[in-house]
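We both want to read discrete structure tokens more fluently, so let's practise on a single case. Would you supply a protein for us yourself, any chain you care to pick? Would you write everything just below, so we can both look at the same thing?
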Amino acid sequence: MKRTFKMEELCCANCAAKMETALNKIDEIDTAVINFMAQRITIVADEDKFESALDKAQTTISKIEKHCKIVR
């Protein structure tokens, strides 16, 4: 399953790159791509694990940029 979400308070392209690298290390996530200019994240994960992958993605993103959020 592939879904794209808006991101809020993504302030730094360097942080977006760090997030993308960290997200692609999460077992539930097949692929994660962050487009800093569009303020969007695309996540590919198995449908049955998607909610768990999204929760782990948000936790990982928050560790890098505290106020950044994935808008569901």
